[in-house]
Amino acid sequence: MSEAAPGLPDSPAFATPQRAQLAEAMRELIDAVMTSHDAADNALVGVAEEVRRLAFRLSGGAQRTEDAGYRPRSHGDYLPRSPIVGEASPLSPRLDWDRVDDHVEGHGTFTAAYEGPPGFVHGGIIALAFDEMLGIANIEAGHPGMTGTLSIRYRRPTPLYRELHFRAWVDRVEGRRIISKGEVSVDDMVTAQAEGIFVQPRPELAEQYFGPRDA
If you write DSSP's letter for every residue of 50-90 in order, what string do you get? Predict the structure, then answer.
């Protein structure tokens, strides 16, 4: 039975090897769209039509415009869908992460889809990555919470096509407030730093946001 939703059966794994394989193929397609500067118009139209056929083949024409079609029961249900670390998400650059002592570390490479200034990662993407990595650090420390504020200090541009190294940790806990910090570096040179204040919602508010745990 599910620990996050007592009384309900565990949901089947979303991030199967087959779905991860599809997500990786989609990342290749996204990169091709962003970098195929000399593609002919008829080639672009032909690929677009083929992609639509494949989308219909996968979904059967079902429209998902109101919800994600699933109920999250644990962190393992939604992290695979993450636009930053999700192995099942074609939007994700696939930052691999692990817990190391009292912090978490992540590494990965951002490609053309994440460009802001030419040759560098968009600052908003850096903020998104920090939000995710600090949140994971909170979970690993046993203090999950929702983002209240997130402050980023951009020390220098963060390059595309280079492996980046993220570190994130819980700095302190003050009641329901979790203060976490992080940094990202390339070749041991820090390019940005973050500090976030996360809040553990009261049980009644968590139920309002996410639904009852025992229904």
Answer: HHHHHHHHHHTT---SS--SS---SHHHHGGG-TTT-TT-T
Return the residue matching tokens 């070749």. Answer: 187
Cβ–Cβ < 8 Å for 81, 14: yes
Distance CA 135, CA 109 (A): 20
Domains of the chain: 93-209 (3.10.129.10)
pLDDT of residue 59: 84
Confidence label for 14 from pLDDT (cuts 50, 70 and 90): confident
Q: What is the pLDDT of residue 203?
A: 78
Both tokens of residue 91? 């939007």
Kindly list the distances between the CA atom of residue 198 and the CA atoms of 4, 72, 141, 143, in Å, as whole numbers in the listed order.
20, 20, 13, 9
d(CA 44, CA 145): 43
For residues 193 and 126, what is the distance between their CA atoms, to the nearest angstrom? 10
pLDDT digits (tens, 9 = 90+) for 63-102: 766 666 666 666 667 788 899 999 999 999 989 999 999 9
Residue 82 near residue 133 (C-beta atoms within 8 A): no
Q: What is the pTM of this model?
A: 0.86
Share of the chain above pLDDT 90, in %: 73
Q: d(Cα 49, Cα 30) in Å, to the nearest integer? A: 15
